[in-house]
Amino acid sequence: MAADQEQEQRRRLLDVASRFPLPSGCRFSYGTAGFRADGATMAPAVCRAGILAALRSVKLAGAAVGIVITASHNPIGDNGVKIADPDGGMMDQQWEPFADALANAPDPDALLQMVLQFVKDEGIPLGGHHTAQVLLGRDTRPTGEYLLDAALQGINAIVGAHAIDMGILTTPQLHWMVWSKNKGTKASESDYFTQLINSFRRMLELLPKDKGGYELAKKLIVDGANGIGGVKLEQIKAELSGLDIIVRNSGKEGEGILNHLCGADFVQKERVTPHGFGPEDVGVRCASLDGDADRLVYFQMSSSSDNKVDLVDGDKILSLFALFIREQLDVINNNGSQVDKSLPARLGIVQTAYANGASTQFLKGLGLEVVFTPTGVKYLHKKALEYDIGIYFEANGHGTVVFSEDFISQLESLSNDLSSQAANCSAQYHSAMRLMAATQLINQAVGDALSGLLLVEAILQYKRWSFQNWCELYSDLPSRQLKVKVVDRSSIVTTDAETKVSQPSSLQELIDKETANYTQGRCFVRPSGTEDVVRVYAEASTQVEADSLAKSVAHHVERLLG
Ligand SMILES: CC(=O)N[C@H]1[C@@H](OP(=O)(O)O)O[C@H](CO)[C@@H](O)[C@@H]1O
Ligand SMILES: [Mg+2]
């Protein structure tokens, strides 16, 4: 870097850091999904995330990097920031310690020294010919605009960095844009919509004509959590052939507060209808998104006498996707067709300890390979990439399907071969085309409630399944989640994909002892990465037992660490 440029770089960093001083007592940690806190206190962390994203882009030869300003399903007053890597996934975990250090740098000088040292250690070619490119998106929160400005100032503090504000978006849209831009494919919002609409239409064109049986009702009510997902769905719903979508909690003025008594997190945890649903909706298929539309669950009211719902969570969405993909692979590989073509594929299912035990048993019972990672999409996504086809979901409804490049190119060449032969009306050809359409429909950058919803709808139509058929795939084991406030949640250390506590060791012994008292009992505790609590999860053969197991373990946590 030329001396005058270096001077300018130093000046800009000192300048921006003094504009966003860290309030005393504030401590940020790049947790499960980036930095999160009360929106009004987030500006210093968001500005520093801007610096970080620009550095990351320079390090990666000017590839586009993303910043999303959102606190997902958390209350409207909260906000957060996370960084998307050039592949559209979460930022490489190796940079998280630096993210933490940078966010907590106590004063401008400390921040400057930290950046200069990091740039040196990482060999980041500041001032070279690579400029940085950072795409920004935010959700509908009132603090979003102000935090966007903080992020822009952070990005612009790196010489040569270029920020592109993509506007108010769902989190997965921004991830998709980063992914697409770096692949060199079309990456605007209208390209995203076009891809969704076209690939959904193609899935429907490929429905078997002669299957008979149940005809899926066109009506689908979607709870938009009063967030950005409902807004976007309203924009495209008229173009979604074969579906009659009604959006509630759509985020329109006066309809309600973001994530308040609505949204995927609420429905999944409380198992009751969101705000705005009533007895007239009994028997109608419903879906619920979270505030930034990266989570999806389905539900249906079975009776008008209470507001309880039958829930289809992430585990069952995963199971539906796995069944569909496996079926297409089976048809392609061993249906005895005239064309001797095969498509070898390693199919992997990735879950976390929060997956209902019944889902894991169901998936393993199908002969599928099921593996576990710690909580957080960054772990699940990475694991899924190890397969030709990786399907991952958190029970709360965040997940997607990823296909390896090698698999997609084999699928493409198989489809081409089949289409040019007499076999182009064969079941094998149709299955290959369906898989092709699915690779286009599902957002491979990250879990995406809108694309996930369309894939669900297409598969239900393909399988000629009602909501009830889907729901009855297996019965969830009763479970309970509790939160416990402790002095220092980081004093709990876990191992084995968070299923065991390694510290304090006495805690695991107590959990084991309690769990042994219950039929089909399973219980684990872990510190949350997004809230200042310890989470307790318990499963058992009845609800009363699951509640009791969770409660007794919560007591132990309180007693030992409270
Ligand atoms: C039990 C649970 O639902 N945990 C959620 C929650 O993480 P915690 O680390 O548990 O706070 O928020 C994450 C980000 O949205 C999500 O990935 C994760 O699944
Ligand atoms: Mg979310």
UniProtKB/TrEMBL annotation:
Boundaries of every Alpha-D-phosphohexomutase alpha/beta/alpha domain copy: 59-94, 129-180
MF-aspect GO terms: metal ion binding; phosphoacetylglucosamine mutase activity
The keyword Glycosyltransferase is annotated on this UniProt entry: no
Pathway: Nucleotide-sugar biosynthesis; UDP-N-acetyl-alpha-D-glucosamine biosynthesis; N-acetyl-alpha-D-glucosamine 1-phosphate from alpha-D-glucosamine 6-phosphate (route I): step 2/2
Binding site for substrate: 394-396, 526-530, 535
Catalytic activity: N-acetyl-alpha-D-glucosamine 1-phosphate = N-acetyl-D-glucosamine 6-phosphate
Cofactor info, note text: Binds 1 Mg(2+) ion per subunit.
Protein name (Swiss-Prot/TrEMBL): Phosphoacetylglucosamine mutase
Classification via SUPFAM superfamilies: Phosphoglucomutase, C-terminal domain, Phosphoglucomutase, first 3 domains
Membership in a protein family: Belongs to the phosphohexose mutase family.
Cofactor(s) annotated in UniProt: Mg(2+)
Keywords carried by this UniProt record: Isomerase, Magnesium, Metal-binding, Phosphoprotein
Function: Interconverts GlcNAc-6-P and GlcNAc-1-P.
Known EC number: 5.4.2.3
Organism, scientific name: Urochloa decumbens
Record-annotated Phosphoacetylglucosamine mutase AMG1 domain positions: 186-297, 313-465
Active site: residue positions: 72
GO biological process, one term: UDP-N-acetylglucosamine biosynthetic process
